[in-house]
Specification:
Distance between the termini: 26 Å
Structural class: mainly beta
Mean pLDDT: 85
Helix content: under 10%
Number of helices: 2
Low-confidence stretches: none
Radius of gyration: 17 Å
Shape: globular
CATH class: Mainly Beta
Number of strands: 15
CATH superfamily: Prolyl oligopeptidase, N-terminal domain
Length: 202
């Protein structure tokens, strides 16, 4: 947290649900070492949390987790920390453009990287998607508009990409590019002004 005194962490519990042990979000006081339960995965409708990210203004958590349901196995939750409530529950096939979004065997995959992050406040979230068809085909950078998901868009990539991150001022981007077995590169470059302006617009 910005006060440099508290840290949100994910801890695995002893309780087994399906193939995973359930886990919960805790607040760790760095001065006293005291742990306090912050969010329970089961109360969020999740059996297991894969990733969470705190928005830059520390008002919202994006939570990516497993539901234990075959029809919709993965959800992303936009959780309001000030109101202690779920703002939005996001299903990847409903927001990632794909011609096969209604085929359970070919659902587009969204999120899951431990480096996914909020960019430009509590509206835009940067992740990686893998869709079998469409403009987000075979791994792409995906900018998710958490307020109006219909504004979300992706940037196609060359090869498999992972762990994208933007500099705080949105001027530079870095990610891992996997071009073949044993061939991984750290890509660092300037972030396009046109996309920066799109993220910063009201």
């Amino acid at each position: 947290m910005s006060d440099n005194k508290r840290l949100l962490i994910l801890l695995e519990e002893q309780k087994q649900i399906g193939q995973y042990r359930t886990n919960n979000v805790y607040m760790l006081d760095l001065e006293t070492g005291q742990l306090e339960l912050y969010l329970e995965s089961l109360e969020l409708g999740l059996t297991h949390i894969e990733m969470f990210a705190l928005s830059t203004d520390e008002t919202v958590l994006m939570i990516y987790g497993m539901t234990g349901q075959q029809s919709e196995p993965v959800h992303m939750l936009v959780y309001d920390l000030e109101l202690n409530t779920i703002r939005k529950r996001i299903v990847s096939r409903q927001v990632v453009p794909s011609e096969s979004a209604n085929d359970p065997q070919l659902y587009p995959a969204l999120g899951g990287s431990r480096n996914d992050e909020w960019v430009a406040g509590d509206r835009w979230f940067l992740a990686v998607v893998n869709a079998p068809t469409g403009e987000c085909y075979n791994y792409a950078l995906f900018f998710l508009d958490a307020i109006d998901t219909s504004n979300s868009f992706c940037i196609p990539s060359q090869g498999i990409i992972a762990d994208p991150i933007l500099s705080p001022d949105l001027t530079h981007i870095a990610y891992i590019n996997v071009v073949g077995p044993g061939q991984e590169f750290l890509m660092v470059g300037n972030f396009p002004d046109a996309i920066k302006e799109r993220l910063q617009s009201p």
